[in-house]
Design brief:
Length: 299
Amino acid sequence: MKAGIERRFWGLGLALLPGVAAMPVQAETCVIDDAEREVCLAQPANRIVALSPGATELVFAAGAGDRVVGVVSFSDYPPEAKQRQSVGSHTRLDLETVLALEPDLLVGWVTGNPHEQLEKLLRLEVPLYLSEPRRFEEVATSLERLSTLAGTRELGQGAADEFRAGVAELRARHADARPVRVFYQVWDEPLMTVNDEHLISQAMSLCGGENVFGELPRLVPRIGEEAVLTADPEAIVAGGMGEANRDWLGDWERYEELSAVRRDNLFFVPPSLIQRPTPRLLEGTRMLCDHLETARGRD
């Protein structure tokens, strides 16, 4: 998986840029980011700009929230993040504002930030850590790596250990649960879901769920309503256009032939709890597990 991320990133020609190479050997602290690049700092980062809402959450969770000086739009957790300087959106960064903040570390999003803007930042030799956890364990290691760069290792390690313990507890609790066939809706127009490589599908598996579209080749495939009717999931789980918007689930109620509709197994999980690769993924997964346990009781 990481090799694929690395190929997509380095395919842009970034390996030829002067800012990509590791800093000189006298650098004191180095980690490997999610694009398999070595990121080195001569001293702990004191001015961090996070270039995605998920990156913002990870840095705060790693104990370095007081070092964050800039965030992108929709960086709404923790609440303190809303007080930081905005540097645009994750899809269009305000590079002038980013540079004016004089960051000593940027935390970017491998596949979410504009590649041409990341290239420019690398040319300017701004230290850039690329983040994109694709496994539960990678959420924990992200906390460890980011806290290493920020000099908050003890806090980051504690958060990582707590996350791992929560994952282990859920895995043990649902190890022998009856499988439930699940369709997770990640978007409405076009209708989109996730395959088994996605963290959301891994959360389903942790709860004893089976992703009815898990074998599709794309990470976030587009599908049609007819495909959902054919798959006939036992449960439908959706986020929505907001943290409390259940409208997408209501759209399925007209299909009374669906097992999920017939059994009233239409469940909502706030999108920020399950669609961001952060420690709050554990909270969203617990909610998902509770929903699937309810579905098991409605055979």
